Amino acid sequence: MRRSALTALLLLPALSFPAWAQTTTQPTTAPKTAAPATVTPAPATDGKTIEAVTATSPRGFSIRMPGGQGWTPLKNVPNTDVAFLNQTVNGLRPTVTVITQDVDPKIKATLADFRDLFSRQLGKDVPSYKLLGEKTTRVSGMPAILWTYSGDGDGGPVRWTQVITLKSNRLFTVTLMTPTGTPADVIDTGREILDSFALTLK
């Protein structure tokens, strides 16, 4: 029962390739599905507005997008709490997404349970899936899994860097997706966004 409940939970957008990332032109909003994060621009300096923004979500996290390098916040993406995207590379757009999911306390699932299920599901759902690296880390003091894997997205070869953590029966999945050929500076700033993720949930 526990495994089937977890498997049902993991048939989720975190494991799917975002269709909106495949387009060469992209609107700044998508159909609204949940309360959005609040995006706060950085303070102005010398009369100029810094492009960096911090997104703070009522779902219990914050994440910061640095200025420059073409990153743009995308509002109201279905089944996604926060999304940032960059300019098209080989028909796909580099993205950073945050997805949260509430976990039934009766399941008593651990981070290790989710890690194992994610791993099995990725092997099934991602063509040419290959795990490139994995380590345990911490996010705001909570245990987390950081891993990198590659495979074929809907539009070509893709590399994902992903953080998974669990707090107060809520699963957080933060994913950086970069198509093959993404410039190094875009990868670096995308990783900066991912690394800025922090938990605010009590």
UniProtKB/TrEMBL annotation:
From what superkingdom does this record's organism come? Bacteria
Q: Which InterPro entries match?
A: Mog1/PsbP_a/b/a-sand
What range does the record give for the signal peptide? Answer: 1-21
Q: Which Gene3D superfamilies match?
A: Mog1/PsbP, alpha/beta/alpha sandwich
Q: Which GO terms describe its molecular function?
A: ATP binding
Q: Which UniProt keywords apply?
A: ATP-binding, Nucleotide-binding, Signal
**Protein name, per record:** Molybdate transport system ATP-binding protein
Species for this entry: Deinococcus metalli
Q: What is the lineage of its organism?
A: Bacteria, Thermotogati, Deinococcota, Deinococci, Deinococcales
